[in-house]
Amino acid sequence: MHFNSSVTQISSLPLTGDPTPNDFEIDNKDLAEVPLTRHSGTTFVGDGSFVGLRNNSLVNQKSEELHNTFLAHKQERQLIILQDFPDPDALSCAWAYQLIAQQYDIKCDIVYAGALSHQENIALVKLTGLPAQRWTIQTLKSKDLSSYQGFVLIDNQGTTSQLVPVVQEVGIPIVAVIDHHSLQSDMKSDFFDVRPSVRATATIFTQYLQYGLLTLDSSINQHVKCATALMHGLRSDTNRLMQAQEEDFMAAAYLSKFYDAQLLNAILQANRSKRVMDVIERSLKNRIVQNNFSIAGVGYLRYDDRDAIPQAADFIVTEENVHTALVYGIVHDEDEELEVVIGSLRTTKLTLDPDEFIKEAFGQDSSGRFFGGGRTSAGGFEIPMGFLSGGNENSAYAKMKWEVFDSQIKQKLLRLVNPKDNPIQSE
Ligand SMILES: [Mn+2]
């Protein structure tokens, strides 16, 4: 997929940050000795604003706040909670957080409830030794949660993890939220850095590193591997840097001094499984193209193959005359006897906001929570099937159930794709 035209977007993007440059001094003795790399920030852009300067001030402010948050939580044990199906951006940033936190004697465990279903994620975790653990709701029951004094959300805001409600229920306070998705909840945390204008959370974390919260050292194996993981996260959230903006490139440039290109290549070489190929095949067979939207329902999938859906969307958006792909299916979790409709959106259309599109198409559940959302060029949704879960031994029933969900999702999508049509109208 190519997004060559996306460069035209850069100058029109909203800039975050305080326009007044501020200098923040580090008051902690240990860290004051760490050499701080701050770029001078005088990049001039055509409209007369100083991009680097504005961002620099926000980065300094946030890095300083995070430093103070770590100081206030010294010697704690924290849980880093990722989305149920964490991607390279989430995984790498959690690792960076863990390494930064270590310097303040804070011990972190990185957990997710779902699965690592993308072959590249499995390769990333195996090849770098990335310390993430799978904690299902089941395993959570056997854990002593009282040893944790706080939890942290990275590359998510708690709306895509099954673990968050459980952890909140036992009263563990939220310490930090660091993300680049659009604002999804009003969770109050000690530290909050959500920047939807940034293309990857890995960029935000690299900025913390550059500020001096952790000095990367090429002779430390773990640092090299973490830098490689961050580079992978940054690349994968920016469509191999094609949608990257100045600050993402700056972050990539910094990481380039530490990462292992061969290791990254090994991660990217991971092959697709046969089951993923089968789902892509189904999406090709079932797709309907209307008004440059390609929509494909792929039927039932095993829980561990969930990531085949975004991969199929990545693929079908590459078709000529298609700017937006939507792929969805029913994911069945055998352990929990639960079913959920999972969908992914990919778009190359600059004026289409995936977050708005998905919220508009599917609306909210009874508690006011949206079924999905997104960021630049990508989005996703999850619709729990509740009472209708299971019973698929009866294949006629399973088929009927799929057809109902398939039609309902198509109706909701086509209403936005063809605004004049009324798909409910019967002939
Ligand atoms: Mn991300």
TrEMBL record:
Region (Disordered): 1-22
Gene3D superfamilies recorded: inorganic pyrophosphatase (n-terminal core) (3.90.1640.10)
Signal peptide region: none
Domain (DDH) ranges: 80-233
Family annotation (Pfam families): DHH (PF01368)
Biased composition (Polar residues): 1-14
Name of the protein: Bifunctional oligoribonuclease/PAP phosphatase NrnA
Organism: Brasilonema sennae CENA114
